[in-house]
Design brief:
Two copies of one chain form a homodimer.
Chain A lengths: L4 H9 L4 E10 L9 E5 L4 E3 L7 H14 L3 E6 L2 H6 L7 E9 L10 H9 L6 E8 L6 E5 L4 E3 L4 H17 L3 E5 L10 E8 L4 E5 L3 H12 L3 E6 L15 E4 L2 H7 L6 E5 L4 H11 L6 E4 L3 H13 L4 H5 L1 E2 L11 H17 L17
Parallel strand pairs in A: 11-12, 11-14, 12-13, 14-15, 15-16
Antiparallel strand pairs in A: 1-2, 1-5, 2-3, 4-5, 6-7, 6-10, 7-8, 9-10
Helix pairs in contact in A: 6-11, 7-8
Chain lengths: ~375, ~375
């Protein structure tokens, strides 16, 4: 939505009524990603795009109906095989588009359009998720959620608000945008209503130092979880794109040199996998001096003891050393690199939520962090 | 290898020398999967295939050199773009093939060929992994590992044997076949030697009952971990291939009816996600009466309490109810469906290894189950 708000605001200030069409779901191959938007005004002017072209005219027609009626609509379009081919895809898919009229006062919500535009504009400083009911009662209602779980607006039901805010906080921390089903009476996910959660935040960044065997599985899993993944290793024969096709970037550089110039913030996770002191020690010395949310280092119990001694020699304080999760991961008896990747990402998630990792069936604590 | 052992044995009994070429690694697209084999005898006769055709002749040539010299070789071939296209792929890749002479006595190993063939033939009853050094000292050495971690043969070094056997046990439980790097002195994964671990076992089966939002992420993660994934739900509008493209099969059926005819063994994991009593209770009543390795059920604390009461009413004993992991997963504060999938698969792995799930950095227990 970000790319059209300036023009939409101008249209509104000129007295136009505006409808916004957003791709909320795709099945199979599709030309545009979830979150792509098209804005249409009552004069038939169009901004942005929701498809490669073929369904654009149909969406404009629907948008004009929505402007006329004021009622939001969720519509589905098959993307033809011909289009699929023309955009380089081998088969067609389906896209779902939510079309909503935008005026100063939002349908069934305590939010104004001004609140939403302001939150989007500030989202680089304060990442937010905008949650919209796209099917079911209160379609069109919106709620804004930030990383701490603070909310603005309502989806029209306190129980749904709680469930969606909880999920939105998690999606936001992953930088993910997604359509989900919810239901009442704790029988959630029963598809009574559909809510589109759109994150306005960069995805969290996972930096993996060490282009080893485990790195491949970890990069695959981290992509499933929505991370931007960097693999970095000083050895050019190991750090190759062919070995890590899932990673967003593969960098040949000493990890501590890479860290000198990299942007590290509270959404950055650093994982050190080489368990070779000549790479690990300088990387960890640099890592603990960043605001990274998570720093983990792989190695046996013995490697970990030896490494702590070297980090102390290098001048790290006890508090700095305690920021490092080593041995890395949850104690699940992981053996293969895939299992180790699960163990590591489970620790990353648990640490963010302040959870123990023990089995839920063995305690009586709340399941979700609130 | 399974498909050629009868003929290879016959060749050997006729006095032929035989080389076996195995695809041990693929990068990018490739026409055959890891584990594909071609057998060549000293008369130039050929069985099986390691590629779509283009590198076959080159491999036969290499195999004849290996038969002549007795020395194993690890060779790499680029698969041309032309071939890629002809087998329906859009770009070429690279395959690595290990070629080893097979005679009654195996190079640098305490195993005979008879041991290996016997273990492969019995692998339906007793799944095994065959580990082969394909690069580094002792190339050609083999070790057989079963699901309990029992070993036959050696890779020529006790420390490597321990590391590889540990990984092989994990790969075997997942039914995975894979090339990995190992090194000495606990600096493992440093690529001093390459070991190919080939599982002779069906992949473990994950049955997901409930075609809900979470099911999609869980099926993606389970495929990364090597599971065969079935999604089953009685509602045909939910249980569709389009919603769960990662699943191996999507079945429209009541879960308890599906379980009546399904094969369930100690490698089957059953996950019940609907948290709707009319589906869950009959599914769980059927599930606890199978030898499944893992049975988990999703739901809030309240849903879990209510469900236990219904399961008691349905006649389940306390021991049967205790087999069910509910609420499902490790306590990592999972919020999104991707995080919940990590929480569930982490519990599956932990339960198999008898581990707690707490952070490894918070205890002093051994990292790997031995």
């Amino acid at each position: 939505m970000k790319e059209v708000i300036d023009e939409v605001e101008q249209w509104l200030s000129l007295g136009h009524t505006v409808a916004l069409a957003t791709v909320v779901n795709t099945l199979g191959s599709s030309p545009r990603e979830v979150g792509a938007v098209m804005a249409v005004n009552d004069a038939g002017e169009v901004l942005g795009s929701v498809s490669g072209g073929c369904v654009e005219a149909a969406v404009v027609e629907e948008a004009l109906i929505v402007i006329e009626s004021g009622e939001p609509r969720l519509v589905s379009y098959g993307v033809s095989d011909e289009l699929g081919l023309s955009v380089g895809l081998t088969c067609g898919g389906t896209i779902q588009i939510f079309i909503q009229q935008f005026s100063d006062k939002l349908h069934s919500s305590n939010l104004s359009l001004r609140d939403i535009f302001q939150a989007i504009r500030q989202s680089l400083q304060t990442p937010i998720a905008i949650c919209t009911v796209v099917e079911g009662m209160q379609a069109g209602a919106k709620m804004i959620v930030n990383e701490k779980g603070d909310r603005l607006g309502s989806l029209g039901n306190a129980e749904i608000d709680n469930m969606v805010a909880d999920d939105a906080q998690g999606l936001l921390q992953q930088g993910l945008t997604k359509l989900s089903d919810y239901g009442l009476n704790e029988q959630c996910r029963q598809a009574e209503i559909k809510v589109f959660v759109e994150s306005f935040a960069p995805p969290p960044h996972l930096m993996i130092f060490g282009a080893i065997d485990f790195t491949r599985s970890l990069s695959v899993l981290a992509k499933v979880l929505g991370y931007q993944v960097t693999v970095c290793d000083a050895r050019d024969s190991f750090a190759t794109v062919a070995r890590f096709p899932a990673a967003d970037e593969v960098i040949v550089e000493w990890p501590h040199k890479y860290l000198e110039n990299a942007h590290v913030d509270h959404r950055t996770m650093i994982v050190v996998l080489t368990h070779d002191p000549k790479f690990d020690v300088p990387a960890l010395v640099s890592a603990v001096r960043t605001p990274a949310a998570y720093i983990g280092a792989m190695g046996s119990r013995r490697t970990t003891r030896d490494r702590i001694a070297r980090l102390q020699e290098a001048g790290l304080t006890e508090a700095e050393i305690n920021r490092i999760s080593a041995p890395i991961g949850l104690d699940i008896g992981a053996r293969t690199s895939e299992e180790t990747a699960v163990s590591i990402m489970a620790e990353v998630i648990a640490l963010r939520s302040g959870r123990s990792g023990e089995r839920l069936s063995h305690n009586q604590k709340p399941i979700h962090a609130r």
